[in-house]
UniProtKB/TrEMBL annotation:
Residues 2-137, 148-286 form the UspA domain. This is Universal stress protein. Belongs to the universal stress protein A family. CDD domains: USP-like. It comes from the Bacteria. Pfam families: Usp.
Amino acid sequence: MSRILVPVDFSAQSIQAVRFAIAYAAHKHELTILHVIPPFPSRQVVQRLGSRSVESFQAEEATEDLKPFVALLNEAGITYRLEIVFGTPHEVIAKQATDDYAAVIMGTHGYGRMTGYLMQSVSYPIVHDAKIPVFLVSEESDASRFPWRKVLIAVDGSDQAMAAAKTAIELSEGMDVSYTLLTVVTPPVAYTGIYGVGWQDTGSLEEWGRDTLKPYEDMLKEKQVSFESKVLIGDPAMLIKETAKEEDAGLIVLGHHGLGGIAGTLVGSVTFKTIHRTQTPLLIVKSE
């Protein structure tokens, strides 16, 4: 039985993430529900009461606030353990997100890239730092479709996208799932010279898109997985989200290039753009 790490706070997003984890676990995976209590902000209070007293109060409050999560898990009859630890949330989660776990499942507020950075989003640094696949689930995700039956795999010709496609298949083992491969070609008019000499019309762009898809198609055929392929032209993040809605996808799969924080914001990471306000759960895979 593999293990899934589910970091939670007390948000509606975390409740949805736990629902998603329960649906996915289905007696095949053990869940570790992890709540991280950040350092108490007032040094004066800690000095007067003592760190042990403050942490005792915080742990009691956390245990009480986590009761709705525990009720969901007990009702579902899922094997789980609950861990409450102290530390900086994204650092503790990233440290625990090792090969001991098959994946991380966590809620996301779906902030924009800069807003998420300024508001110290936990999900963004976890996507960047975690060594294992990360599922992100928003409050608006439709829980009746958990875990997933249709998977949209967005690819761009990179090793990260290939790793993401393979991981999606591995994590869907034993499930009745259909796949759609999607690549989005950005028109050279938006980024002069990006495709070099040879672009003449949309036919050329579609041909390049089909060439991009071929290694992924070969891999899926080798694994004897049924799928359909799509080539679209335009803005990748927008078209990924639109296609997921049109296909009624229950999961979007993306490879991540590992750019985090300001770097990811400045280069316009497709991953971060797709996270922004998406209602479809995401599986993000980073390849070293």
